[in-house]
Design goal:
The protein has about 260 residues and is an alpha+beta fold. The chain contains eight helices and 13 strands. The protein has two domains: about 60 residues, Arc Repressor Mutant, subunit A; about 160 residues, Chorismate lyase-like (Chorismate lyase), CATH 3.40.1410.10. A hairpin with a 3-residue loop joins strand 1 and strand 2. Helix 1 crosses helix 3 and helix 2 packs across helix 3. The protein is elongated.
Amino acid sequence: MSEIQRPGALYQQVAAAIREAILSGEFAPDSLLPSEAQLMARYGVSRPTVRNAISALRAEGLIDVRHGKGSFVRSSGQPHLTIERRVSRTAEGKFVMPNGDIWQEAEEPTTYRTHTTKDTGRLLRLDEEEALFGCDRLLIDPSSGTRAMHRTLIPFEVAEAVPLLGEEPCKPAAAIYWVLTQAGHQLAWTETVRARMPLPDERTALKLPDATPVLHVTRTAHGTDDRPLFLEELRFGADRAELVYRITADKQPTRRTRT
């Protein structure tokens, strides 16, 4: 039996001892933790104390409780999927999205009308409550089981200026880029990435374990005069995938020499 001789509530002392065993490698990643009875015997505490300790470690994200199987140490390995974030074009001028072929649609896409929020309005440089076409997709990578929520948002005023977008606002992003260039826009993109805790519907749709943040990626397509035309959002569990970017150096303007 391991002696518990630390300040703080008893369950916190047990949680600290289990945490040390995990971080030291005694309880390896993906391994099943000892049963409640074994932990009670090991630390000389009651069942409620063990359960409270497990709950605390679960909230920290160190433990994943699988119903009917027990408590497992969360994996500390590499993400299951690497997602490239760049835009390429073919010789014919069509747009190609890296990793575009890995995703399958888990459900039928949903098209709807919505309005800008404070966040989407800022990215699209519109006031709040401006009309938008929205399209939601739930995606899955069959090889790893990684799930992602993909959303596209097109301002009404852009759809009115480019009729093909208003007729079919749920086109894939690469197809929307093509339609915009055919309408005379020369596109450029900005992208932001932030981590946050998931909303209840995101946790359910993405099948996230406890205490797992989502990565929320937003990509804005800009057209003539840097005007935002189109917004994409991609959300997935931060434990499942990582993003990779290709960075190139900008060309600096040539300085003229005075003679």
